[in-house]
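hey so u asked for the seq, here:
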Amino acid sequence: MAELDAFHEVLFPSAVSFGATGGPVRRNEIVTLTSGRERRNARFAESRRSYDAGTGLRSLDDVYAVLAFFEARRGSLHGFRFRDPFDRKSCAPHETPSALDQTIGTGDGATAAYQLIKIYGSGPDAYQRPIRKPVEGTVSVAVDGAGGVAGVDFTVDATTGLVVFEPASIPQAGLSVTAGYEFDVPVRFDSEALSVNLAAFKAGQIPAIPLIEVLS
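ran it, structure tokens below
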């Protein structure tokens, strides 16, 4: 029997993903009281991305690539990487990532491991999104504005987004730890079947290919 929570470190077909639609989803409970006022509660601490990759299909070759990818993942059984066409960098879409983009922690002289995060908004209401699937080779890290050297000062686990400093490079107390990177979203198919009608596809009717983010 296949492992239920297995994740495949492979990328969904890029040509299709860049035409996909979707974005963050929040699950909130809203109860209207007898007074007419509302009581609102967040069901989940983290937002969850949801996509429809069907809008990215442009040719029969794209359809075949997705079908093959679906079969290799055993449908919804295994998660995989998805390149979000709207939000895939530590910076704005038109910019190049810099080691100063995101503050991921503050040194204390002892902590060696820091989780990559991306901050949305500012002040006390800002949302800190954990980044668990950075693109290998794109992560740069700085301490107090001074860039470190990957493999010498720190290492990055591309499967978890964890930055670990070498003992001699552990950030000292009060120093800001920042990072820049590109990243993927861990997702799975949100359906047990893919249904494609050739005549309908040629007529412009695009099949739905739902994807949902996998939260760890």
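The chain has two domains: 7-85+185-213, 102-180. Residues 7-85+185-213 form one domain.
lmk if thats what u needed
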